[in-house]
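I have a small job for you when you get a moment. Can you supply me with one protein entry, sequence and fold together? It will help me judge whether the discrete encoding reads sensibly. Write everything out right here, beneath this request:
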Amino acid sequence: MAKNKDKDKRKKKKKKDKKGKDPGPSVKDKELYEKLRDEGNSKRKSAAIANAAAGSSRSKVGSKGGSSPSYDDWTKSDLYDRAKQLGIEGRSSMSKAELSKALRNH
């Protein structure tokens, strides 16, 4: 019975060590990293978000992303191909304006 208690203590100790472990020098915003880990995010994802937040501001991290030209600037062929990728029905009989509208509303 004493062996089982020792085994349980070792398991608890290991868990405690992992929880409070310093993420290392590669993580720039350790406070945010720990918060994200507590929420259940992976180490990799937490580190990526924490480092992105440290590079700019926390409020700007979620708004990062690329940009794309307006559907009005696309050719009808490009609009048709995109509608096909998205599975928009009736695309073969649509005009350029209708394809553009269907893609915006998809």
Q: What stands out?
A: Residues 13-17 have pLDDT under 50 and may be disordered. Helices lie at 2-19, 30-38, 43-55, 58-61, 76-86, 96-104.
